Amino acid sequence: MKKIIGIIIACILITLVGCAGDSGHEGEAKTPSGSSVQEGRDYQEVVDEFKEKGFNNIKTEKLEDLITGWLTKDGEVESVSVDGDKDYSPDVWYSNDVEVVITYHTFPEKEKSDKESSEEESSEEEQSTNDTTEEDEQSANDTTEEDEQSTNDKTEESNEEILTVENNKDLAALLAVKNENDPTVGEFAKKYAGRTIEFDGNIAHMMPHGSYKTRYDILIFAGDYSETTFSGPNFKFEDVNIINDLNLTGSNIPDTIGMGQNLHITAVVEEYDENSGLFFLEPISTEIR
């Protein structure tokens, strides 16, 4: 019995000491995960985490350096500093009013405004379509027929000679650009929409499409893979299956492919998205180099 009473008293003393320790940090806040752990997270989640820990002087700074949002996502944290220290440690007590600065990546304001304007225009066009009268519907049917004819024309064009750097100077110039926003990229996409191109390229990045495990979004650069340099626009195969869509060919087809793989690509020109800087292609065949 004396032993049990002794244990109970010891527990009470430990509890009292713990409470005394907490009361000694009035007006302070304890850091969450260290700065290196915060990198790559969504900045708003990091803001909320510091607020929950008791910090009340939190500032955010934008790095308007995104072009495509492919490798780095909009809102992704670059660094976090506490009281000017970017290498702060977790679980350290600071005055709760020290400055916490969260720096994150985002698109330039102009690009965001252009994207929002485009979305508003799309919404207005959708509303206008819903309000179409019977006369307008007939006109829309006529337009659909014209679009179908245009699609058929593009299909016929795709059966024309395949464009290569040897027989088409525009393709050669396209694959040599060093800036995905080069005006020649959009010009080429409009001029040769529906045509088939053939060129040497490489997988610059590859990731699952949404929640799928067998379908992927693949970023393609021209020429051989390099970690330091790139050439050509940001070509993209979107929502493709490696077996059914890429149609891999060659003398040595691997079980899987990934970033760094050199390929010889034959694909149809789809469209160029000026907002994202992505040039969409539809793969026809992909030969391992």
Automatic annotation (TrEMBL):
<dbReference type="Pfam" id="PF16127">
    <property type="entry name" value="DUF4839"/>
</dbReference>
<protein>
    <recommendedName>
        <fullName>DUF4839 domain-containing protein</fullName>
    </recommendedName>
</protein>
<feature type="region of interest" description="Disordered">
    <location>
        <begin position="106"/>
        <end position="166"/>
    </location>
</feature>
<dbReference type="InterPro" id="IPR032290">
    <property type="entry name" value="DUF4839"/>
</dbReference>
<feature type="signal peptide">
    <location>
        <begin position="1"/>
        <end position="20"/>
    </location>
</feature>
<feature type="compositionally biased region" description="Acidic residues">
    <location>
        <begin position="117"/>
        <end position="150"/>
    </location>
</feature>
<feature type="compositionally biased region" description="Basic and acidic residues">
    <location>
        <begin position="107"/>
        <end position="116"/>
    </location>
</feature>
<keyword id="KW-0732">Signal</keyword>
